[in-house]
Amino acid sequence: MTTTDFFTTGEDVLRAAIAAELDRTRRRSLALTDSVDDADLTRQHSPLMSPLVWDLAHIGNQEELWLVRDVGGLVPLRSDIDELYDAFQHARADRPALPLLSPAEARGYVRGVREKTLDVLDRTPLRGRRLVADGFAFGMIVQHEQQHDETMLATHQLRTGEPVLHAPAPPPSILPPTAREVLIPGGPFTMGTDSDPWALDNERPAHTVLVDSFYLDAAPVTNAAYAEFIAEGGYDRREWWTEAGWAHRQQAELRAPLFWERDSDGTWWRRRFGVTEPVPAEEPVVHVCLHEAEAYARWAGRRLPTEAEWEKAARHDPVTGRSRRYPWGDEAPTEHHANLGQRHLSPAPVGAYPQGTTPAGVHQLVGDVWEWTSSTFTAHPGFAAFPYREYSEVFLDGGYQVLRGGSFGTDTSMARASFRNWDHPIRRQIFAGFRCARDAARAERS
Ligand code: AVJ
Ligand code: FE
């Protein structure tokens, strides 16, 4: 069983499931931090990232604030460190200079918090108060930790040195899409959710959105396709870039996706978690910013999908008119549906997950790479911050761009197709790629 099945089966089953999720998540956090030495944990691998030891203690601090103090009503373990681990108090670049807990102290702290959390879980009714109904606060903290785990994975990718993370290669392409693009007929669909117990505030409420007919790429843009864009002068032709995109292209001297390098034969190589290898042609391109995605789309005579288009393609069931939880239906993700959860250390080639396609034939919407959309991060109509403004609300209308679908480093607890991610348009260290869309011709509209 997986978490989604528990909500209907009773409180003890849900409680056991939450304990398992907390444990599974903590194993990932520890694997990400036990794999490097103390110097590596406290060092800043990029000004864009916190030292890994900050993420670890921040994970524990967030758990303490919500589960130990708020839900449990217990006294603080360490109220003196709240300020150090408040993401709004210190920019990532400034965190290495703070008097942070040492690696040993941070490990001891998260262990101590977790012991209290498990006591709280044992004695908290998972109903009544909205914060705890269906175990929401626990689910929120699992997702918070998993989000930082993906952030730590991005820090690992920025780190130089010998490989320390290991995982089997992703599955091969077994059934690539038969068509390049899929027509998504026009009409209303339900965006967002009211009923998903662990959905976060920004996914709520459910509301009807009218989406015109459009074509969506059946798969994310591959490295081979992206290399063609580069070969045709993609980075040198002003006309394919937006004004902001070109300014950034110039200023940041963009020439290729982050971590790509071309040798004297013209072969592209990429560095991935300490391993340098030829860029795999059929994998979705990753580590491009919004501006690069938009320039590619313009070159290809296409555009990025809006967030609503993306979600409609991923969730709308034209037979029942309902929005489903995942592209393949409501069944919780397995290793056959999508490349999620750091099971592999790269995107899988297009065609690796035929069981994860939508009924209309769109592949790999969830997993592999986050997908840039053309939408900025705004509130769904009727949005209300819950349980705190700093998760979503303070970022709304703040110049952030929405990404959808999750990457190979995203946990299954965030794989639901209503989940929304956001980042600055210029960011490339996240595991982001994209797919293209285009308007349907008038005659093709239903
Ligand atoms: C939703 C991924 C944009 O990492 O900034 C972590 C998640 N919020 N701690 C981020 C988050 C608070 C957030 N993103
Ligand atoms: Fe956080």
UniProtKB/TrEMBL annotation:
GO terms for molecular function: gamma-glutamyl hercynylcysteine sulfoxide synthase activity; iron ion binding. Residues 21-152 form the DinB-like domain. InterPro entries: CTDL_fold, DinB-like, DinB/YfiT-like, EgtB, EgtB_Actinobacteria, Sulfatase_Mod_Factor_Kinase, SUMF_dom, SUMF_sf. Gamma-L-glutamyl-L-cysteine binds at R92, A93, D94, R95, D423, R427. Pathway: Amino-acid biosynthesis; ergothioneine biosynthesis. Its EC number is 1.14.99.50. Keywords: Iron, Metal-binding, Monooxygenase, Oxidoreductase. It is an enzyme of class 1 (oxidoreductase). Its cofactor is Fe(2+). Residues 179-438 form the Sulfatase-modifying factor enzyme-like domain. It catalyses: gamma-L-glutamyl-L-cysteine + hercynine + O2 = gamma-L-glutamyl-hercynylcysteine S-oxide + H2O. The keyword Magnesium does not apply. Fe cation binds at H58, H144, H148. Catalyzes the oxidative sulfurization of hercynine (N-alpha,N-alpha,N-alpha-trimethyl-L-histidine) into hercynyl-gamma-L-glutamyl-L-cysteine sulfoxide, a step in the biosynthesis pathway of ergothioneine. Belongs to the EgtB family. PANTHER family: HERCYNINE OXYGENASE, SULFATASE MODIFYING FACTOR 1, 2. This is Hercynine oxygenase. It comes from Actinoalloteichus fjordicus. The gene is egtB.
